[in-house]
Each structure stands twice: as C-alpha cells, then as structure tokens.
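re: that complex we talked abt at group meeting.

here r the seqs, copy pasted straight from the sheet so there may be weird spacing, ignore it
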Amino acid sequence: MSNFASAQTEPIKTVSTRSKTVDWETVYRAEMPRIYNFLRYRLRDEAAAEDLTAVTFEKAWRHRNSYQPEESAFSTWLFTIARNTATDYLRVKKEELPLKETAVSNNPSPEEMVSKGQDLVVLQQIVAELPEREQEILALKYGAELTNRQIARQMGLSSVNVRIILYRTIRKLRPQLEE
Amino acid sequence: MNDKKFHAFRRTPDEAYADTLYQRLAMLPQSHTAAPQPEQHGRSRKTRLAWVVALLLAGILVMAIVPGVRARFEDIVKEIGGLSLFITEDYPFSDNPNIVPDDIITLEEAADRLGFEFNLPAYIPEGMVLKEDEIHASNITTYIRLMWQDENARGRFIELSIGPANDIKWVVAPEGVTEVMVNDTPAILIQGGWSADTEQWEDFGNKDLRWQLAGAKYMLYTVSEEFGGLPTEELIKIAESIAPMETPVEAPMETPVGAEKGGRVRPEG
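got the structure back, here u go
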C-alpha cells in the first residue's frame, strides 16, 4: 500500500475508544485490504466493493466510541460492520435485480477468464448458486483470509462446522473451476 | 482440500483509492451519540432516572409477591458448582460475534499467562496426543486452551480451556445444560449451541464439560461423536484425572516444569 499515512490531510494516528486506544493507521493498513477483498468476494462487484469498504470504515470511524474492546478485537468489530453493510446492500440489490440475471455466458473456461482479468465474472458464475451462508463463508475464507476458527466465531458456528461446510462447498465447486 | 484457485480472485486495493479513502476518514467527525449536554437536558435525565428507579422497584415488588414470576426468574439464573449460568431461549450476543485471534504459546508460557500453576489430565484416551504447537492464549480474558488430537482420526480431539474462577455467567439454552458430577463436585455439561442460521439453539452433538477446581475454571470440549468426538463418560473420566493443586490460584509463582501427560505446569517468576 502507498503513503496514505503521509497524505496532505493530517493523518489519524490513534483513536480513543472507551477504554483502549486503537492505532487507526495500523488497523487501516492491515484491515482495509481484507475488508475490501471480503466485500469483493461477497458482492462480486468491484465498484460496490470499493464503495462498501469506504462505508464500513466510515461507520467504524464515526462510531468508534461504541466499540467495546473487552468484547471483541477491533478487526472483529470491523468485519461485523462489513458483513451487515454487505447484507443490507444485497437485500436492496436482490429486490432490484436478481444476481443470477447478471451472470454472463460461460463459454470461456474460468481459468481463461481469470487470466483475462474477468475474475469477478468467474466468481459470480461459480458462487451465485450457493446459499447465502456458503457465499459468506467463502468470502471470509478466501477474500478476508480468516482462519476457520475466526470464521466460526464470526458466523456463530463451530470450527468443525465451518471446515465441513467449506469442504463440501469446494468439492461442489471444483468441477466448475476445472472445466 | 485443494482450494488454491479460490485465493486467485483476491486483489490488492488500488493505491489511489486507499489514499483517498484514508484522507476522507481523516476529515470525518466522530459521531457523538453519548449522553446529551446536562445544561439542556438535566431535568429530563433526572425524570428518566426516577422512572427507571420506580420501574425497578415495581419489578422487584412483583417478583417478591407473585410466585410465578419469582419461579421464572429463578429458572433463568442458576448456579451449579460455583458456575453461574444464564439460561435463555434467546442469544443476547448474536449481533456482536467475537473472532479475536488468540496468541499461540508454549506449554511453559501457559502457566505464566494464567498466573497460576495447573495440572494436566493424568488420563487421556488412547491415541490422543497433546498438540504442543497449538496452545492458545486468549487476548480477551485470562484463558489458555490445550488440544489433544488423534493423529489417525483428526476429528477425534478434545480441547481443554483453563482460566481463573470468576463470576462470568454463561449463556446456555434451557434444554442444553445438565448437571453432572466430577469427583463428587457438581459440574455442568453443555450440549449444542446457538445457530446463527436458524437463530435458535441447536444440538450439534458437541459437548462442553465445565467445572471448578481449586480456584480455577476448566472447560473440556469435544465435537459430536459422529465426527469422532468422545462420549460424556470419557469427558468426565478425563476431568476427574486432573488433580487439584495443593496451593490456591493466588499462590506465589514458581519455575515452569512438566509438559507430559499428567504433568504439572508452573508459571515463571
């Protein structure tokens, strides 16, 4: 990442929450790419992922005093905001246009499309049919790169459940990736 | 599981976008949703406080007078073997899940993180070995977690969490908790958990045995027997094989020793 900390605007070094100071710059540097990729996998829309990453961080910044460090890590709190923001967005979008209708022809193979930079189209094709829970777990695993244990806690599942769901989902999707 | 291809869709955010967003955040005001200014709302706050106190007193009065209400209250807050339970059909924390990463520590560091020495189980089922490279220390509360796993059946594992005794109330489902005995001491067996999907308590087949011993709190977890988890009798046998410490939890620190089965682990100091 570039020199965002030395931008013309005075950089935000730390934020004070109720009982703990969070190094905002470090949090932003570490979590922004993960939040962005979680939303990219979740929404499969580049522009929407950027918009909602901004919304997530703006919400977190505006409401940082409601963060309770004794209950969760700052990153956990951020992911909760990101997940809720994505859910709200998808709910509205679903009413406007079903996701399946945006899928394109699958003539080229997924690997060819990834190499041509059409990775979001590939992602859309292979995960759009999955239930919401599986889509969210995939986004947390491969977009945000959380561990199974972290996903389990975020989703209110056991890590064994997460492992089994991931195993079954990947097994289901693998033929489409290997076509 | 070969899932490498799924990582291929990740992208580094555009630098200009990252910079712009950071600058925009720097200019945002913080939301002040906390208490209103006392000069403007002092009277309304006092009135609200009076109402809260009045309602509280009314609630206490109703609870004292009406046996049904009193019984219902007694049903939801319970104490077994020094462990406090909050029994409810709802899950009050579903909007704030917790994924704070743990630290991975050594067995020698475990007692130091806890601040007291502890004993390992003298009995561990055949084939299970302590995963010394997977000892976790919580970053939220004072707890460490150890794992024993069967190398030939990786679903067959147990997790033992140890922490100081405290007055934390555990939220459990009405049907999800049973009182059992560990060496003649009351303990609780929690089965199932909250499902975020169905938004209700469900029995996943997992078991969580919790008990207190010499000022420390122990939790022994196993997955469903369907996935290789242990039956309740085995959990209790393991729990009963943990010898109580001779010194209380607040005892002075000593040199760390012992990592083998049934060994004693002491904090540095």
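couple things i noticed - Confidence is low (pLDDT under 50) at residues 1-19, 99-106 of chain A. The two ends of chain A are 35 Å apart (CA to CA).
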